[in-house]
Amino acid sequence: MSIKRWIKNSEDAYDFVVNENVQATIHFNRSSSDGIVTVNAAKETFKINRSGFWKSNIEITDTSNVLAASVKPAKWYSGHYIMQYNGQEYKLIVRNNPLAEWAIQQNDKDICAYGLDTKNGAVTVRITEAENVPVLFHFILWYLFWPIAVENTGDHLLFSLLLTA
Predict the structure, then answer these.
(1) With helix as H, strand as E and coil as C, how does 94-152 read?
(2) Over the stretch 102-133, which tens digit does the pLDDT of each residue have?
(3) Taking CA atoms, which of 61, 97, 104, 113 is between 20 and 30 Å from 127?
(4) Has residue 92 got a pLDDT over 60?
(5) Nearest residue to 72 via CA among 55, 88, 95
(6) 21, 38 in Cβ contact below 8 A?
(7) Residue pLDDT, tens place only, 1-26
(8) C-alpha–C-alpha distance, residues 47 and 65, integer Å
């Protein structure tokens, strides 16, 4: 069982840590109007960018601008999204019952999710995942969940991982 978490390393950057080893760093650029987020992984760099008229589409590209994954609303008024990754289709949903959570599903089963939880009277981030989840899924979920985590936990971000089979 591996322990995965996000650790704040500067004002707008977080390290993705697996068993105490930094696997990637995500850089949020709040001062930029383009909204592009950069992820520096061990061997690759990705950009996460919003596109479309309402900026409701998400594109993840590598350094050669090759599309690694994309996320689009199922319908313009929908509460869930369709994610394309590696030739497969996944559902990306947001829940708020009882606390906020983003989840990636395959065959209507959660394979990776980021949600709010409480522990010892403090708000924490709970990460759940099935086996063999692509690391890119963590980048997408943290990109989407980060504003919720910051709003609800402040600067004392505390993360825990609960693995599910």
Answers:
(1) EEECCCEEEEEEECCEEEEEEEEEEECCEEEEEEEECCCCCHHHHHHHHHHHHHHHHHH
(2) 999 999 999 999 999 888 888 888 999 998 89
(3) 61
(4) yes
(5) 55
(6) no
(7) 688 899 999 888 999 999 999 999 99
(8) 9
Structure tokens at 152: 């609800």
The reported pLDDT for the residue numbered 154 is 61
| In the block, residue with structure tokens 């520096």 | 40
Using alpha carbons, select from 12, 1, 40, 5 the residue that is nearest to residue 125: 5
Structural tokens at position 63 = 């350094």
The helix (H) or strand (E) run that includes residue 29 is none
- Among 64, 59, 71, residue whose Cα is nearest residue 35: 59
Mean pLDDT of the chain: 86
| CA–CA gap between residue 39 and residue 15 (Å, rounded) | 10
Helix (H, G, I), strand (E, B) or coil at 79: coil
